[in-house]
Design a protein that fits this description.
single chain, alpha/beta, Rossmann fold, two-stranded antiparallel ribbon, 8 strands, 25% helix, globular
Length: 167
């Protein structure tokens, strides 16, 4: 069975990455195997200039894989942005219990909105909304969590998406 995807959405600098980082610690502490997928709407560059992998890519390789004991990284050209399901199928290990995605607010996956200040920052009618995390309490039709209540948010997620080994 493919691992479930939970998307964390919100404006830039709303605290999504910090919340996800803390949530990963909580979930892995509970025995979950977690993968993350980050949507970078404005592009990104991960390879370090001057390193061998960068040199290979710059020379024209369409795909570069770097392997060391315990780690693997891949840089590959894509003709278009891949659907998140395709990323899950092609690149996520089968023993993963949960995928936390940062972004993909328009997709129908379960999602948590992270709000910095005002609810008007985001659309709470998003398809699949399961929770809102913010600094201030917000009246919504889904559970609200203080952004520091990582344990409570983790409990919601573990209840809705039990580990594959537990199912």
């Amino acid at each position: 069975m493919a691992p479930p995807i939970v998307c964390f959405v919100g404006r830039s600098n709303s605290g999504k990455t910090t919340l996800i980082e803390r949530l990963i610690l909580e979930l892995t502490g509970a025995g979950y195997r977690v993968a993350t997928i980050k949507h970078a709407g404005h592009g990104f560059d991960l390879d370090t200039e001057g390193k061998d992998s960068w040199r290979h890519k710059r020379a024209g390789a369409s795909q570069v894989v770097v392997l060391s004991k315990g780690s693997l990284a891949m840089f590959t050209d894509v003709s278009e942005e891949l659907p998140i399901e395709s990323i899950r199928e092609r690149f996520i290990n089968s023993d993963i219990d949960l995928i936390i995605a940062e972004g993909w607010k328009s997709q129908g996956f379960p999602k948590v909105i992270v709000v910095r200040e005002e609810l008007q920052e985001v659309d709470v009618s998003l398809e699949g909304l399961i929770a809102v995390a913010s600094i201030k309490p917000i009246e919504v039709d889904v559970p609200w969590f203080d952004r520091d209540d990582v344990h409570g948010l983790a409990q919601l997620i573990t209840t809705r998406f039990p580990r594959q080994a537990d199912s």
